[in-house]
């Protein structure tokens, strides 16, 4: 029978990553653990657009233009694409320090700070770097054991340091950082356009049908229109306001975290070292800059851990163990155990010697005693 080869289970690096993120599709999808609000976002977008396609689009496509439902479909697909791209991507999580790296950083900090007297609080762990002729402080993260890069911050919800951290958005179910900020902004911008588009043509649909059959009859025939108008009305202000706020931040090349903390508009009136003092340059850097790769290597293979094999003590001669021979007999007039072994082996040889003919070279007893007397000799 042929032997069945059982493949070894490959352990990916995303399975061992610390933090509070969840992974799907073998590490390709990365999200936060709290995804309830994200599901609500999907329900509101898909539900509102489904009602619009079911009740308004057939009438508007016939009486006004077929381009109205076609453009709505394209806008809906774009909104879903950038939403999923924002939610399922790595926002820019920084890997934590390895034990050896953390120990080396601790040694550097202790060497720089020196011994702290008992009862005194140690000084803050910071490093100063110069960016565009301005000093920027790098703070030490006690959870990740690293000095965070400029503009990075530790997200308490995901429990990870995120590069160019903007904020944690529960509506998309993920952090917004260096690698997905542009997609988040495109999501808010396209969602604002989609909300305005649906709200506007809902009103147009109600007005056109009211001229034909009256307002009350129109509401009865299209009950989904009232629900769409209410959802779009209350969503419009928040989404459009959020888009306007992030547009303002992009023109300054600033993050939400920096704006809330007042990093560049505080008491010291320190200017933003990342701003180009030009609206177009700031927008191009944020929205049209290079796509940064992930530094996590989520789908990498973990190295196999080889178990330590205990070393056996060396043996001089395993086939012939060393023994001590007893030369003196244990009991008087007795033989030692070692002396009996060769005698037992030589016993058959002695028995064979007794059956051999006598040696002629030795004189017999009769020769030694002389010739025997003749009985007939005269005495």
State Rg: 47 Å
Q: What's the helical proportion of residues? A: 40-55%
Q: How many helix segments?
A: 10
SSE string, helices as H and strands as E: EEHHHEEEEEEEHHHHHHH
Coarse structural class = mainly alpha
Portion in beta strands: 5-15%
Number of strands: 9
Overview of this protein structure:
The chain has helices at 36-63, 67-88, 99-113, 181-213, 215-221, 223-252, 256-261, 279-288, 337-355, 365-369, and strands at 21-24, 29-32, 126-130, 135-141, 146-147, 153-155, 160-162, 167-169, 174-176. The protein is mostly helical. Helix 1 (36-63) packs across helix 4, helix 1 crosses helix 6 and helix 5 (215-221) packs across helix 6. The longest helix is centred in the middle third of the chain and has 33 residues, at 181-213. Residues 323-348 and 351-379 have low confidence and may be disordered.
Summarize, please:
The protein has 379 residues and is mostly helical.
Question: What topology does this entry show?
Answer:
Blueprint: E1 21-24, E2 29-32, H1 36-63, H2 67-88, H3 99-113, E3 126-130, E4 135-141, E5 146-147, E6 153-155, E7 160-162, E8 167-169, E9 174-176, H4 181-213, H5 215-221, H6 223-252, H7 256-261, H8 279-288, H9 337-355, H10 365-369
Antiparallel strand pairs: 1-2, 3-4, 4-5, 6-7, 8-9
Helix pairs in contact: 1-2, 1-4, 1-6, 2-4, 4-5, 4-6, 5-6
Which features characterize this protein?
elongated, two-stranded antiparallel ribbon, 3-stranded antiparallel beta sheet, single chain, mainly alpha, disordered C terminus, 379 residues
